[in-house]
Design goal:
Blueprint (H helix, E strand, L loop, with lengths): L2 H13 L2 H8 L3 H15 L4 E4 L2 E4 L1 H22 L8 E4 L6 H12 L5 E4 L4 H10 L4 E4 L12 E15 L11 E2 L7 E3 L8 H13 L2 E3 L7 H10 L3 E6 L13 E6 L2 E11 L5 H10 L11 E2 L8
Parallel strand pairs: 3-4, 3-5, 7-11, 8-9, 8-10, 12-13
Antiparallel strand pairs: 1-2, 5-12, 6-10, 6-11, 6-12
Helix pairs in contact: 1-2, 1-3, 1-4, 2-3
Keywords: DNA-binding, Transcription, Transcription regulation
Pfam family, one: LysR_substrate
Family: Belongs to the LysR transcriptional regulatory family.
Length: about 300
């Protein structure tokens, strides 16, 4: 159904005259008559009856009018959803509880006037494709993974380094430690189900294992963070890594311990990615917000893989 004919029908119904509708739409009266005739032919009914006072809706015209208005409202909402500057700023984060999500909550508190859509895409390749297609405006990712240089039209900047912590149950051998060195973790089973080969986070942990001789097990299905916390709490031999800025809540009986890792502290580097030609005004505000000084970038006593783009 052609929206111009629907829009013309609504204008004529509101005005009660084809001439006034033509003036409102900046077309000729003949054009209005042709559009109405086309719509009537498509619907198979008469929508107007010509009278001495102008044009009156028939019973069918009265029945069609509220639906015609809704069609125009839906069309406007559809157009608004993709108009840069009028649609929400769409940002991809790795997880709903991680540091990037926390950064976006802080941005929303600082700029409540900017409407946000926060999504979670699978990996950097999916995120970059979504940025290039315009499906999202920005993404938090570790870049650039080995063999995956960013396309020339994608910009990136390191914005947030998240220190890793060791998470253990109350019976774990390291549960009583106030901090642990990376060397102390050698020989301990670190369980991280859900690490997918080929992703940027898998590349990060592969380098961490290779650098420090750790044992990270990714076996078993990934039932989410709640199931992971349950298993770690009940299994003295298992520990896992968690981002130090990741929000976690667990039952009081779990007795889980979050232990800082030192000498050096592994940090997960979050960069913001965006398309260099993206004109969304909210994107510039987000970049300025994230550009505020943040401690920990390439600080002494921290570790990141060599392939990570420096700050």
């Amino acid at each position: 159904m052609d929206l111009d004919t629907v829009r013309t029908f609504v204008a004529a119904a509101d005005a009660g005259q084809f001439q006034e509708a033509a003036a409102e739409l900046a077309v000729t009266q003949q054009a209005v008559s042709k559009r109405i005739a086309t719509l009537e032919r498509d619907l198979g009914v008469r929508l107007f009856t010509r009278t001495a006072r102008g044009a009156e809706l028939t019973i069918d015209g009265q029945a069609f009018l509220p639906h015609a208005r809704e069609l125009l409202r839906v069309a406007e909402r559809a157009a608004t959803s993709v108009r840069t500057g009028r649609r929400p700023l769409r940002v991809d984060v790795i997880s709903s509880r991680g540091a990037a999500t926390g950064a976006m909550r802080g941005f929303h508190r600082a700029h409540p006037e900017i409407e946000l859509d926060v999504v979670m895409l699978f990996d950097i390749e999916t995120a970059v494709a979504a940025i290039r297609s315009g499906a999202i405006d920005a993404s938090f990712r570790a870049v650039a993974a080995p063999g995956r240089p960013l396309p020339e039209d994608i910009e990136s900047v390191r914005v947030l380094d998240e220190p890793l912590q060791l998470l253990t149950g109350p019976a774990h051998a390291l549960a009583g430690a106030r901090s642990v060195t990376v060397a102390q973790l050698a020989g301990h089973r670190i369980w991280m189900p859900g690490i997918v080969p080929g992703t940027e986070w898998a590349a990060y942990y592969d380098d961490l294992v290779a650098e420090f001789g750790l044992t990270i097990e990714a076996t078993g299905p990934n039932f989410g963070s709640d199931a992971l916390l349950d298993t770690v709490a009940d299994t003295p031999a298992l520990a896992t890594f968690m981002g130090g800025l990741t929000r976690l809540v667990w039952p009081a009986g779990h007795g889980l311990r979050r232990i800082p890792v030192t000498d050096p502290t592994p940090v997960y580097p979050h960069s913001l990615l965006w398309h260099r030609d993206n004109p969304h005004p909210g994107l510039a505000t987000l970049r300025a917000h994230l550009a505020a000084p943040t401690a920990g970038h390439d600080a002494a006593g921290t570790w990141i893989p060599g392939w990570v783009i420096p700050r």
